[in-house]
Amino acid sequence: MKTVNQRAWFFVLPVLLLVAFNALVPMMTVVNYSVQETFGDNLFFWEGLRWFEQILTSERFHAALGRQFLFTGIILLIEIPLGIIIALSMPRKGFWVPVCLVTMALPMLIPWNVVGAMWNIFTLPRLGLAGYFLNEIVGINYNMTQSPLAAWITIIVMDVWHWTSLVVLLCYAGLVSIPDAYYQAAKIDGASNWSVFRYIQLPKMKTVLTIAILLRFMDSFNIYTEPFVLTGGGPGNSTTLLSIDLVKIALGQFDLGPAAAMSLIYFAITLLVSWLFYTLMTREDDK
Amino acid sequence: MKPRYLIPILYIAFLMLPIYWLVAMSFKTTNEILSGFSLFPQTFTLENYRVIFTTPSWYWGYINSIIYVSINTVISIAVALPAAYAFSRYRFLGDKHLFFWLLTNRMAPAAVFALPFFQLYSATGLFDTHIAVALAHCLFNIPLAVWILEGFMSGVPKELDETAYVDGYSFPRFFTTIFLPTIKAGVGVAAFFCFMFSWVELLLAKTLTAVNAKPIAAEMTKTASSAGYELGLLAAAGTLTIIPGAIVIYFVRNYIAKGFALGRV
C-alpha cells in the first residue's frame, strides 16, 4: 500500500514545469487560433466555433479521417497477430536470443525520414530491389507514383517492417516471464498447443499486448514523416493521412484557423480512443 | 533446428532486405545507380562517404543531432527519476490525473505542435539552438521516461526504502547509493528510449532549427530535393544514421525485451 504524502509533489514539480511549458503554451496557441481569423499583422477577429463546424462538415476532413482509420485498422490487424506469432516462435534462451532482439529492434532506431527514403530507394520501379523484382521478374506493373493501390500496399508494408518488432518485443517480454512449471503442468495434463496458448500464454501477454495495441494505435494514428517522405500523400490524395493533411492546411495554405480547429479535433479523437485503452488497462491492474 | 525457427529467420530476412539495399546503394556511384539494376555494387566506391565526412553541413548535421539527443536524454532522466519515485511510492493529491495527463502528451500528434512550437521558441529566443530541440523533445520523452522508470521502481519492494531509513540513511544518500544501483537496468532502458525517440524524430527538430542546430535527417531532405537526385549520397547518409542506434541497442540488449514492456512484466 502506498503512503499518502503530499510533499511528493516537490518530486514531480520539475517534470510538471518542463512538460507544461512544452504542452500548455502551444496548446493555448492552438486554441487561440481555432476560434479566430487572422490576416497576419497580429490582427485577429473572433470567429467562435465556425472553424470547428467547417472542419467537421468538410468532406476533405472526413476523407482524411477515413483513410487514417483504415490505415490504423489495417496495420493493427496485421502487426498484432504477426507480432504474437513471431514472439511465440522465437528461441527462449541461448546465443540467438540477443541476436534476434537486436536485429529486430534495429528498424525502430532509424530516423523516420530515413525509413521513408530507404523504402523509396527500395521500391523504385527500375532501380530498387523490390521495384525491380516485382516489375521485371514477377511481371506485375508496380509503380507507387501512379497506382493508389501500390502506394497503399507500400506504406502498409513499410509500417509492418518498421513497427511489428515493437509488438514482438513486448509479447516476448511477457512470454519469458512465464515460469517453466506452467508448461510442465500443461504437459502432464496433456494440453494441446492451442490450449497452452489460450490458457497460459495469452493471459500472461495480456498486459503487454494492451500496451502494444495502445502504443501502435497512438503512433500509427499520428504518423507523418514516413508516408510523407515515401508518397508525399499521393498519388492524388490517396495516401494523405490526417497529419499530412493537417500540415498541408497549416503550413502549405497557411489557413491557421481551420488547421488549429482540426488539430484540436484530431487530438480529441486520439485522446478518446487512448483513454478507452487506458481505463481498460488500469481496471485490469486493480483486480 | 526446430521448424518454428523458420518464422523469425524469415522475419529477420524481411527486416534486413531494405537495410541491405540502402547500404549497397551507398557504395555505388551515381552512374551505376542510374544505369540500371545491380544486386551488388559493381564499381565499389567510398566517394559518397568521403563527401559526407568532408562537407561541414553534412558532418555538422550528425554532431548537431548527437548534441541535442544527448542533452534531451540527460534532462529527461534527471527530472523523471524523482517524479517516477514519487509515483511509485506515494499517493498524493491528483497523482492519477497527473500521470494520465503526462501520458496524453505522448499521444499528441507532432504535426499539431509544429507551428506553435516554432512561435514559442522564436519568442523565447531559443530558435535554432540545440537546447530548443532538446526541450521540445522533452514533451514526449519525459512522460515515457517517467512511465518506464515507474514500472521498474514499482518492482523494487518498499521494504528496501524502509530498511535504509531505519539504518539511518538520509533520503539523498539512500537514493544515490542504494536505490539507483538497484534500478540501473531501468535507468539504462529509459535512457535508451529517450535516445531512440529523440534520434528518430524529425518534424519538430526540423521546425525548430535553421542552420546552427540543423539535424542530420533534415540535411538529408534538402539533398533529396535540391541537389538533384543523389541517391548514393542519400543512401550513405542514411546508412550512417543507423549506426548510433545500433551501438546503443547493443548496450541494452539484455534488458530490451523488459524495457519495451515498460518494466511491466
In terms of topology, how is this protein built?
The complex is a heterodimer of chains A (287) and B (265).
Chain A: E1 3-4, H1 9-34, E2 36-38, E3 44-46, H2 50-57, H3 59-89, H4 96-105, H5 112-123, H6 129-138, H7 148-176, H8 180-188, H9 193-221, H10 225-231, H11 242-252, H12 256-286
Antiparallel strand pairs in A: 2-3
Chain B: H1 6-26, H2 30-35, H3 47-54, H4 56-89, E1 90-91, H5 95-107, H6 110-123, H7 130-154, H8 159-166, H9 171-182, H10 184-200, H11 203-207, H12 216-225, H13 231-251, H14 256-260
Keywords for this entry:
heterodimer, A: about 290 residues, mainly alpha, MetI-like fold, two-stranded antiparallel sheet, 12 helices, B: about 260 residues, about 75% helix
Q: What would you say about this model in short?
A:
By secondary structure, chain A is mainly α.
Strand proportion of chain B, as a percent range, falls in under 5%
Largest contact between chains: A-B, 95 and 97 residues
Report the helical percentage of chain B: over 70%
Measured distance between first and last alpha carbons of chain B: 29 Å
CATH architecture of chain A: Orthogonal Bundle
Q: What fold name goes in the CATH topology slot of the domain at 57-219 and 241-260 in chain B?
A: MetI-like fold
| Tally of separate domains of chain A | 1
Radius of gyration of chain A: 23 Å
Order of helices and strands of chain A: EHEEHHHHHHHHHHH
Determine the oligomeric state from the structure: heterodimer
SS class of chain A = mainly alpha
Give the class-level CATH name of the domain at 57-219 and 241-260 in chain B.
Mainly Alpha
What would you report as the Rg of chain B, rounded to the nearest angstrom? 22 Å
How many H/I helices of chain B?
14
Spans of chain B with pLDDT under 50 lasting ≥5 residues?
none
Biggest pleated-sheet summary of chain B: none
**Spatial shape of chain B:** globular
**Span of the ends, CA to CA of chain A:** 14 Å
The CATH superfamily of chain A is identified as MetI-like
